[in-house]
Amino acid sequence: MEIRATYRFLRMSPQKVRQVVDLVRGRQVDSALAVLKFTPRAAAREVYKVLASAVANAENNAMLSREDLYVAAIQADEGPRLKRWRARARGRADRILKRTCHVTVVLDEYEEAVETV
Fold first, then answer.
1. Which terminal Cβ of the chain has fewer Cβ within 10 Å, N or C?
2. What's the half-sphere exposure (Cβ side, CA atoms, 13 Å) at 23?
3. Which domains can be identified in the chain, with CATH numbers?
């Protein structure tokens, strides 16, 4: 059973968020939360919130145990860009792109290994 949580329109560059997301992909939930808690990046705080929300969804909505969960998939996709202008010399203007991203976390349960003898 998949449990999902998303954070849309995060005002951070997807490139910076992906560096943090790559640290926790495939990890057990408690291990992933510990890594994010001690990662000194601004994106780590936001990814921590999404992961904690996904864990809460699993515990409260699907009645799953926290110890059985792992990060099956996590991704930071590009969102819409806010376009702004910066004044330059001689009456010109340069474009500034303020990037956003959508962070999606998918948790899943570990499958019990079935032994065949």
1. C
2. 20
3. 3-109 (3.90.470.10)
